[in-house]
Amino acid sequence: MSLPPEKASELKQLIHQQLSKMDVHGRIREILAETIREELAPDQQQLSTEDLIKALRRRGIIDDVMKELNFVTDNVDQELPPSPKQPICFTDRQSTLLKKTNIDPTRRYLYLQVLGGKAFLEHLQEPEPLPGQVCSTFTLCLHFRNQRFRSKPVPCACEPDFHDGFLLEVHRENLGDGTRMADSTTMLSISDPIHMVLIKTDIFGETTLVASYFLEWRSVLGSENGATNLTVELMGVGTESKVSVGILNIKLEMYPPLSQTLSQEVVNTQLALERQKTAEKERLFLVYAKQWWREYLQIRPSHNSRLVKIFAQDENGINRPVCSYVKPLRAGRLLDTPRQAARFVNVLGYERAPVIGGGGKQEQWCTLLAFLCRNKGDCEDHANLLCSLLLGYGLEAFVCVGTKAKGVPHAWVMTCGTDGTITFWESLTGHRYIHKSNNPDEPPVAEQPKPLYPYRTIGCVFNHQMFLGNCQPSDSVEICVFDLNDESKWKPMSEEAIKSVCAPGATTSLPPFPPLCASTIDASVTSNEIEMQLRLLVSEHRKDLGLTTVWEDQLSYLLSPALASYEFERTTSISAGNEEFQDAIRRAVPDGHTFKGFPIHFVYRNARRAFATCLRSPFCEEIICCRGDQVRLAVRVRVFTYPESACAVWIMFACKYRSVL
């Protein structure tokens, strides 16, 4: 068992305040610097973790901290009433242990501290939250060289109380010298920025993307004492990308301290050269793209109305080639199959980019970190992520840009099999469709069946290496031929041109792709919590109608196999286990009784919102408001977790009652 999130957060904040009050960070830094100065020979640049811990023990730092953070456990049983929950101190010890970091003394680290925020003017009138009160929160998410971090949530305010530290490992992959610590010159050539994403979570658990910022950290290499303070102005997203949303105070430090720092002039020159090189590559690609587009229009004037998307704006309003939004992405051991990957993308929430006022759809293609941290996005975000995952599984995958019914712009994914099979993957639902092309010139031998997929037209397809514009006489998906090697049907862009701006490391303006994170949701605990809340809501609803409520736990338990079967079918397209479920229900329902069940699926964990949605269904309302003789109600909730704390929530309401004629 664990503490409620608000209590755990409050406890962590108290400990953090105590450590700050004692200035533990400052004392540790002084002792480390002194130890390195006194105990290291001039030719030796490594200090083991044991040596550092001994130095801290010798000076009494560890003892002081333990005394200050001592929990009184002797009287816990006397002070608290008997409860199955574990004492607070145990939970805290577990969370503290989880936060320990193993530091490799042969590696170089960048310690990034967020020392508060200011000028978040949208929250100027925000009242001070009372202890234990649920309020909107800010969370800061970071990504740097395949490492991801998340701050503790802080209440939204004009001056949010961010006080977090993140230890980022600075290293070079595949250099052939993994034992050598990176020096300042080596680190100067590491052009990866620190991607910072600020997320707001409201009291209902809904997330909003507030800001996305790329921090250039290499200025610390030119600071004399290996530390520098920065003031970072965060700009809004989408239509508000030119409006400031707030300021963060950040401190950067190198560990161990650099033996030789670079001059600020050298650092600035390197950064200027990188910007210049990137700008030139982007300029040349823009010139090429314009020429390609002119040639495409000369094939057929009607091509001007086709959805051929070469550039797309990200959340910061920056135009980037669409090919840069896709890259082969491996999910490690978090996802086992392409179809499971499609299910994961499907359970991420769908939300169109917000727009102020009317005027149709606001276009915004999010960087992957912003999409994952917010846990929801538009169809293009889903399609880019699914295509990246399918490429990681070794499939030949492309993002398709076209329209659905009524000319609504849409993006989906296509895979090309080695036998020529074309499969469409709908990233918003997880459905797969086999495409069979109809030849419009052949006489109809028999009436052609209507395609099952919802797509109407297709303008272009792309992945991380290729971009092809549809130049067939008709852009209708139904009669489209997907022979991508036939240049009379698909006009390709130069792969070299795409590589010059979209290959990893090609330009410093490309956001690196973050790895996926495992789920932090406990499926069993969350399932139980939602189920208890739904039972309470149903009982209250029936009480308002003047009805009593009798729950049957055994019937509730028998619904579990059905929910597991539904999720298995969504993932694999194979139905299994239905016979056993039906047999168990027949045995549980006596002769002369009627059984009714209603399964429903959600991608959020808000029980009250789910219940309100269920009541809008006449079938479900009939079960919840069931009247009759010997009415017994049942509800079962099953939460299936996926990476990034995405989840599929299956709920089944059921009732059995004696049929009275």
User: What is the C-alpha radius of gyration, as a whole number of Å?
Assistant: 29 Å
Please summarize the sheet with the most strands.
Answer: 7 strands, antiparallel
Average residue pLDDT: 85
Count the strands?
A: 23
- Derived structural class: alpha+beta
The CATH level-2 architecture of the largest domain is identified as Roll
Strand arrangement, major sheet: 17-16-15-14-18-19-20
Q: Report the end-to-end length measured between terminal Cα atoms.
A: 49 Å
Task: State which percent range the strand residues make up.
Answer: 15-25%
Number of domains: 4
Please write the CATH class name of the largest domain.
Alpha Beta
**Do you know the CATH topology of the largest domain?**
C8orf32 fold
Unreliable spans are 71-98
**Quaternary assembly:** single chain
Helical content (DSSP H or I, runs of 4+)? 25-40%
Main location: cytoplasm
Family: Belongs to the CEP76 family.
Subcellular location: Cytoplasm, Cytoskeleton, Microtubule organizing center, Centrosome, Centriole
Protein name: Centrosomal protein of 76 kDa
